[in-house]
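Hey, I'm writing a tutorial for new members on how sequence and structure tokens pair up, and I'd like a real worked example in the thread rather than a made-up one. If someone can provide the structure for the chain below, I'll link this post from the tutorial.
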Amino acid sequence: MTITVVVADDQGLVRSGFSVLLAGEPGIEVVGEAANGAEAVALAASERPDVVLMDVRMPVMDGLEATRRITADESLAGTRVVILTTFDLDEYVHEALRAGASGFLLKDTLPADLIAAVRVVAAGDALIAPKITRRLIAEFAGRPDPGVSAATSAVLDQLTSREREVLEVVARGQSNAEIAASLFVSHATVKTHISRLLMKLDARDRAQLVMIAYETGVVSPGAP
């Protein structure tokens, strides 16, 4: 199955570089390039890609607003947005997660890591760059969202002990394989637990599960 990708970045060299790299990989097809957020939203609507690589700082419409619009569109439920970021853009991470971003990539990421990240997020298996994502989430998730906490606290009480345990390790950035190994269960069992968590907590993907875990105190920023 071919993974379709849209690359959104206002720097032509960066945009073209990512596109050429991804287009050269078997099973990946770049279906469009966008120079601003408005173009990214339009391309997402017309092409319905599996993944949108989204820069933050772009003219006309920034990447955060574009991400919000894409993730709010029910017809694009299968599209995942990955934010392209640098460490000096850390202040945007919290807002990007709230906007519905499924993960983050550093712009200086290695080519092999970029390719692997696109495949991973398209499969919905794990957050992008787990070490980086956990560090950023831990820093910014301490800013509570009362609406999220109030809406989910009652549901959290209804989770089984195993589901809560799985939520905790998901929040620490572990992949399905790592969770299966640490909890001594099968990969299929892990996928079942995560599917139930997504349904019970009304979460779009693993990134939102992570935010819920931090915002409701299931996991505390800085916890091992």
